[in-house]
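Q: Sequence in, structure out?
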Amino acid sequence: QVQFVESGGGLVQPGGSLRLSCAASRSIASIYTMAWYRQAPGKQREWVATCVSDGITSYKDSVKGRFTISRDNAKNTMYLQMNSLKPEDTAVYYCKSPGNGWGQGTQVTVSS
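A: Exactly. Output:
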């Protein structure tokens, strides 16, 4: 199994930006699908974005045009660039790939 460690969260004002990182415990080159999820207080965990190894990406409608998912196989790391953040983006963000467990997540709080 691969363990993931998420980082990069924090407190940001509406309209601000953050870049989340997801560091893997081993090479991710052979992992076809990697994704970001989030869980807001009192809500179920939801899918945010997916990146497959051939570069194809997909996004939840509410983050399209604002978030960009990417991966660097050489660094065993996946990223989520988040721009134009809104209060409703406040959540704990997790990275995941099929067959592997959940990490601890990283808290993102968007508030003035």
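The mean pLDDT is 95.
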